[in-house]
Design a protein that fits this description.
The chain is mainly α. It has one domain. Helix 1 crosses helix 4. The protein contains five helices and no strands. The protein is 81% helix and 0% strand.
Length: 101
């Protein structure tokens, strides 16, 4: 391994440790800390990172509450994407049926 790989993994480990400490204190976090948690879960964390955080029993209550409050909820964007996907599917079926006649 190169030193860059080692330093990258050390940074990722430090970041995950910071996230775990914030989740241990959740919901008593500042708005900036909440934004950091949301950004980490939505765009920075790998599946392994999330799994390792989820397995930490010391922070399980804060983790579950954070996920319920901010990650696992449907947003209007999610609903719009669902309707758009359904509309495309219906349009494809209609076009196939029209072509068959």
């Amino acid at each position: 391994m190169t030193s860059t790989t080692l330093s990258d993994s050390a940074v990722a480990l430090a970041r995950r440790s910071h996230v775990e400490s914030l989740l241990g204190a959740y919901p008593d976090v500042t708005p900036d800390e909440l934004a950091l948690l949301q950004r980490w879960f939505r765009s920075q964390a790998s599946a392994l990172d999330v799994a390792m955080v989820a397995c930490n029993e010391q922070i399980s209550a804060g983790y579950r509450q954070f996920r319920r409050d901010h990650i696992d909820r449907f947003t209007w964007s999610d609903v719009a994407k669902g309707f758009a996907g359904a509309a495309v599917l219906v349009l494809c079926v209609v076009l196939i049926l029209l072509r068959a006649w």
